Amino acid sequence: MGRHAVTAAAAAIGAVVTCKAFGLQSLPSHDHVLSSRQRSMSAPQQLRHIKTSRTALCRWCAPPGGTPAVAEKHDSGDSDLQEEHEQLHQQQQLQLNVFHQLLQDCQTAADYAATAEPADAGSGSSEWSGFWTAEPKLQQVLDSLQQCSPAWRGGRGASLAWSWLGLSTMPLRVMLHQGGGFGVLLTVLPPGAKPPAHRPMIGAHMLSIVCQGDVEQVKANGQRIINRTRHTPETPIWNSFGGGVRRLANMSVTTAYILEVLFYGKRGPPEYDTRAPDGGAAERNAEADEFILSGPRAMATLSAPPCDPEVLFRSVGEEGGDEGGEVLVIRGREGSLLLGGQGGGAAAAPVTSAAAVVGASLATSVGGLDTQLEEIVRRVLATRALPADVRQALGVSHVRGLLLYGPPGCGKTLLARELARRLKARPPQLVSGPEVLDKWVGEAERKVRALFAAAEEEHERCVRGGGDPADLPLHVICFDELDALCRTRGSLLGDTSGVRDSVVNQILAKMDGLVGLQNLVSGGTKWVTCRNGFCCHAVVVLVTRYSAFGASVVLAKMDGLVMSLQNPLAVGMTERRDLLDAAPLTDYSFAHQYNQSDQHDAHFNTISMRALVVGMTNRRDLLDAALLRPGRLEVAVFVPLPDEQGRRQILAIHLRQARSSGLVDDDVSDALLASRTAGFSGADLAGLVRSAISFAVARWQDLHFTRAAGGVAIATSTSDSTANESADSAATAGVRVTVADFERALLEVEPSVSDSGERLGVRRRLRNMSKAVAKGLQGS
Ligand SMILES: Nc1ncnc2c1ncn2[C@@H]1O[C@H](COP(=O)(O)OP(=O)(O)OP(=O)(O)O)[C@@H](O)[C@H]1O
């Protein structure tokens, strides 16, 4: 038998073995894995090909154990949704096919290399010796690698494939496959990550591709090679031989993904080499050790390698979320990444990425804010979804404050409410700035304290009852129109300025309490007379942190702060409380004295885990800068006017109910309406839908009135031809929203916000007023 025949047979056997090894049985049959001709097509061509393969899609849509709801979606009659759904599945299908193709090609290449052995890597500069695979096989692997990308996205902001790994704030290495003489590794580097140098696997022939991001690779193995690779469809593949010391750095602002294929031959997967980069044989490179082990080790807790490709690529419909929408469903082994703290469940039980689920389900009620949702999920929610031990291992703490800012009516309040609801938090406490302000001295601050009181009381009760505060639900505290409350201190003139400054201070004090001040010593209150002669209710927190102050200095500073800034919050800090005399403590009538070892530190820290403060404003520029510092409202997300795609999503959201009840004409096109509503905010679009429905309701009422009065169903009361035509049918005896209704609504509802974020209504009123004044002047 010629070499080619042998290798072809080996390839065929290899493919079968590979399929079994990768658990491909339950996946779409081989005719849905791309043929070599199809593989030579461009990605869009492949997409088109898959689109025509309806059987494959349906199999994928309704996998064993899949919910009927997923299949039902096809029959929902909602063509937009159906189209979106199909696109999503086509993309998933493509990704899965591409990945499986890669595995098959690698397996074939590894099978061809069965006779080759990597040289011993003892020297640390190992090379794969001799012939290891046929050139065409290598080319196939390279082609397959080139097709891989984690960045394909589905509809409505659902991130697919590996992008959920981008939630990690730490570099991660994920073993996607291991066995059959090769491994496939995914390295995920958060923006700016520069993990310590390490050696790649010894003796491995490696092919790496940057799937996303801009990555610098520095190799130092006798010679120094600096290679910077930005992801493009034509990104060159790094082709290297194992053993050299290497450092990767993510130079981009997005997460970078690097996919590597490592061929290690028959002798099995080599260990990561964590010896010092200088080549010292015994001396371990502790830094690299930590990185490498924290990656796979974290992943071992998160998702036992090798990951099931299905796990990584699965991202379908309603299974994970209580409200539907696209969610990432991870069928994992014990303790998969982002399990929402449920690690260690039954092996087959579906587990979901809590953060991704929340993000995706938010998209079902908040439209046009995909990027914002992604940022919120990554920066605010992701850590809350991590199991406590993983979070501790990564050394990350929760973000406690989120600021949503932007023009009015674009969904800030809606987003905050929905966020609280989806986080299964206690009912959110939502107050608006002007509501908090009070004419009575000290009352506004009391209201602020009351907002935080529930979280604190619940925590106390839980601790007293011997419970674990970590199990407590989250408290979300939302301040709408924050600019009315938290203007830059000292920026306001007049009698109210002291009160407002004091409210800012109170909020800061509470947020800092939530941050968990170390070494909190004393807290109390005092009535002080400010320069302007008004009495203020001072909240005083004394923190022992800096030894720079002596007792008198502390006292003077506290008084000085209170007096000179009209600032009713005085903060004194010292590490040497013993140096303090009694004066500050008595003068400020401190009710409590805590020290470092006191439980109260833990108290504040734990409360902080269970509280999220969300501020909302149209005028971020007016806010006190202290409020925006890290540890306070540290994540600021701009919520803009929706673009066309966003408007389409918002319209679909607001019409969803009426549509699902079959009350909207098929001719009503969200896409068309979106193209005609440039400059509309989310609130305007909601108003437009309400207006259109109001016309339909009026027509319906007229119809019923006519029937009731004359017993004859003739819609003479409306000139709308669509309604006339349909008046006979039983179905249209109900409300029916038509294109004509929207045409009328468009004449009635206008954009309320200018591009610069101002309310047009106000400007219009002002314009009218000035016209009236001018007229009056002319008349007089
Ligand atoms: N992105 C959106 N998706 C869906 N509905 C939206 C969106 N934005 C606004 N809406 C609709 O408009 C209403 C008002 O929006 P919301 O109060 O959240 O805006 P806002 O940005 O907080 O405005 P303001 O700054 O005036 O407080 C919402 O209840 C919702 O019905």
From TrEMBL:
GO cellular component, one term: Golgi stack
InterPro entries noted in UniProt: AAA+_ATPase, AAA_lid_3, ATPase_AAA_core, P-loop_NTPase, Vesicle-fus_ATPase
Catalytic activity: ATP + H2O = ADP + phosphate + H(+)
Entry's localization field: Cytoplasm
Main location: cytoplasm
UniProt EC number: 3.6.4.6
Names of required cofactors: Mg(2+)
Cofactor note: Binds 1 Mg(2+) ion per subunit.
Keyword Ribosomal protein among UniProt keywords: no
Keyword terms: ATP-binding, Cytoplasm, ER-Golgi transport, Hydrolase, Magnesium, Metal-binding, Nucleotide-binding, Protein transport, Transport
Molecular function per GO: ATP binding; ATP hydrolysis activity; metal ion binding
Keyword match Cell membrane: no
Region: Disordered, residue numbers: 68-88
GO biological process, one term: SNARE complex disassembly
Enzyme class: hydrolase
A Pfam family: AAA_lid_3
Bias (Basic and acidic residues) ranges: 71-88
Positions of the AAA+ ATPase domain: 398-643
PANTHER family: VESICLE-FUSING ATPASE (PTHR23078:SF3), VESICULAR-FUSION PROTEIN NSF (PTHR23078)
Similarity comment: family membership: Belongs to the AAA ATPase family.
Role noted for this protein: Required for vesicle-mediated transport. Catalyzes the fusion of transport vesicles within the Golgi cisternae. Is also required for transport from the endoplasmic reticulum to the Golgi stack. Seems to function as a fusion protein required for the delivery of cargo proteins to all compartments of the Golgi stack independent of vesicle origin.
Protein name: Vesicle-fusing ATPase
Species this chain originates from: Tribonema minus
